[in-house]
């Protein structure tokens, strides 16, 4: 009898080990993605994120990707639905999506991407580089002092620079305020031209063109989703634009100091893989960055009769 019980225990132990191994092999992770709006930069970040996670986890990862269509309230609706589904991780693409995710859950890991600065986005004082909660991610911030210098590098005779941005985007406000300080130190007069949404972007851009020698547009999601509307005006007035990222620059700008949003998404995806595999704690993960590249828009340069500066790559 004792021998029979011993054999049975061995068999049960083997079955448990086998079952545990099978579960590990078939376990899947559900990752929710809330993308604020559809445009080239954010689309590239989402794709890079997916590609990196699939490379790391293969068919163990399932995506629930939703787009807020540029409407802030939609971000909350999407994120709340992901929380109710108890997804394993949320990727918030752009600042409004990050803000909604951070407000919706304190337990599910949240990774932001295409977010310029996490301190103003999440109202954090004494920024150390790490959020310290269930939130981390990547930043698309290119050096703002270098962007300010670019304006005079390309247009040394410019006296008035119009700062065009969406006042509803916290990170756009941050960038504009910083660039304004740098330009003031260089003796350049600036004027802010803010729009609240797509409804007034054309009229505000028109005023900016009429009152500025050059226009600066930061990494702004509303502007990025409406480059055609901006281009229709700056083409007519022949007002040059220095942009905060390549997507805006390719649509209506002359030059930019930009990052690869696809690479930024890949970096975010690798962070997500570490969290899901239990190799990292989101609360201790510092915000990560990627390298920047000087680029110019050959079509706009040709149209305005501007010779591209040395050291800048043409945007394809």
Physical arrangement of strands within the biggest beta sheet? 7-6-8-9-10-11-12
Radius of gyration: 23 Å
Percent of residues in beta strands = 15-25%
Q: What is the overall shape?
A: elongated
Judged by helices, strands and strand pairing, the structural class is alpha/beta
- N-end to C-end Cα span: 78 Å
Number of beta-strand segments: 12
Which residues sit in consecutive blocks of at least 5 with pLDDT less than 50?
7-25
Average pLDDT number = 92
Please give the share of residues in helix: 40-55%
- The number of helical runs is 13
Note down, in words, how this protein is organized:
Residues 7-25 have low confidence and may be disordered. Helix 13 links the parallel strand 11 and strand 12. The chain is 49% helix and 20% strand. With 316 residues, the protein is α/β, with parallel strands linked by helices.
What order do the helices and strands come in, and which of them pair?
Layout: H1 2-26, E1 29-35, H2 40-57, E2 61-67, H3 72-84, E3 89-93, H4 95-104, E4 110-115, H5 118-122, E5 135-139, H6 144-154, E6 160-166, H7 170-185, E7 189-195, H8 201-211, E8 214-217, H9 221-224, H10 227-237, E9 241-243, H11 246-252, E10 255-259, H12 261-276, E11 292-296, H13 298-304, E12 313-314
Parallel strand pairs: 1-2, 1-3, 3-4, 4-5, 6-7, 6-8, 8-9, 9-10, 11-12
Antiparallel strand pairs: 10-11
Helix pairs in contact: 2-12, 3-4, 6-7, 8-10
């Amino acid at each position: 009898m004792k021998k029979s019980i011993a054999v049975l225990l061995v068999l049960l132990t083997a079955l448990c080990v086998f079952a545990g191994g099978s579960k590990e092999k078939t376990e899947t992770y559900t990752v929710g993605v809330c993308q604020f709006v559809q445009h080239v930069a954010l689309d590239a970040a989402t794709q890079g994120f997916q590609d990196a996670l699939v490379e790391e986890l293969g068919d163990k990862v399932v995506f629930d990707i939703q787009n807020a269509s540029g409407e802030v309230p939609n971000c909350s609706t999407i994120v709340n639905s992901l929380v109710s589904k108890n997804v394993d991780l949320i990727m918030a693409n752009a600042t409004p999506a990050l803000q909604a995710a951070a407000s919706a859950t304190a337990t599910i890991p949240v990774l932001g991407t295409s977010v310029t600065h996490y301190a103003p986005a999440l109202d954090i004082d004494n920024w150390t580089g790490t959020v310290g909660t269930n939130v981390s991610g990547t930043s698309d911030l290119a050096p703002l002092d270098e962007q300010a210098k670019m304006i005079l590098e390309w247009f040394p005779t410019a006296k008035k620079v119009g700062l065009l941005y969406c006042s509803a985007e916290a990170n756009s406000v941050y960038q504009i305020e910083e660039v304004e300080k740098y330009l003031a130190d260089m003796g350049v007069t600036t004027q802010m031209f803010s729009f609240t949404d797509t409804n007034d972007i054309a009229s505000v851009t028109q005023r900016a063109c009429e009152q500025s020698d050059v226009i600066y547009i930061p990494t702004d999601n509303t502007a990025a989703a409406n480059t055609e509307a901006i281009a229709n005006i700056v083409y007519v007035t022949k007002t040059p634009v220095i942009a905060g990222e390549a997507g805006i620059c390719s649509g209506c700008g002359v030059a930019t100091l930009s990052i690869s949003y696809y690479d930024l998404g890949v970096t975010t995806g690798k962070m997500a893989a570490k969290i899901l595999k239990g190799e990292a704690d989101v609360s201790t993960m510092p915000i990560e960055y990627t390298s920047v590249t000087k680029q110019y828009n050959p079509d706009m340069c040709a149209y305005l009769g501007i010779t591209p500066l040395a050291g800048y790559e043409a945007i394809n």
